[in-house]
Amino acid sequence: MVWLINFLADKFGNNAILKGGMELRLLDCPRHTNDIDYVFVPFSSKKDVRELVLDAFSEVPDLKIEHSLNSKNLRCLCEYNGIRVQIEISAAMDCKSQELTTATLARATNQQAHIVRGMRFDIALAHKIAAWNERRLVRDLYDCYFMVDILAIHPHIQTLRQRLAKSEIRAGRKTKIVSMTIIDLISTLTTALVDLSQTMVEEQMRDFLLPEELPGLEKKIRIGVNKLLEMLRSDGLSA
Q1: Is 90 found in the same domain as 71?
Q2: pLDDT by residue (tens digit) across 26-85?
Q3: Do 136 and 78 lie in a common domain?
Q4: For the sheet containing 35-40, what is the strand order?
Q5: Model pTM score
């Protein structure tokens, strides 16, 4: 995964913007992730990105690539020496970003560190909150806790409002578009905290964290999400 991040940084520079769980890994988040998520800019079509990415990967001997396009992203399953990693790439005309380094993970795998671009943290947090709202996974709440309580990030309210206005809420096998406000989100998050339990946290997070990270994690998530609620009340309702 580190090699792929470095490779895409070399090939595409500031046009490849890292996001999601792997961006948090570069900020020393202990949560494991099996995917590498990107936004490629400035592109209006995932098809244009596909040709560039596949051409770049074709230069790597023995790297096997399977790819597919869906409504949201280009998905590439990369395999090298039996190791498989999934990369998901969306396209956008613009995405605010900032510099990150792969140094910590690179040192752990005896690789050279690279400077890469990551989605600006306040915008990334807004998207993470919206992702939780749409799929209700504990790992999204964990990421919110890490960004708010550990990294002291405030969400970008305008981005959050835009995502909430077209929330893709899963209802069984179907997805419906729902328009929500910050007030609606506050109510939904508050209810989720009432239902949150250590058992739920352990069941959903055991594949993403080492066993020694799990005890008391429900309390940490609760503290972080309560801080987030305070931010939403102060920033979101006044802006």
Answers
A1: yes
A2: 999 999 998 999 999 999 989 999 999 999 999 999 999 999 998 889 999 999 999 999
A3: no
A4: 64-69, 74-80, 83-91, 35-40, 16-19, 115-119, 97-101
A5: 0.93
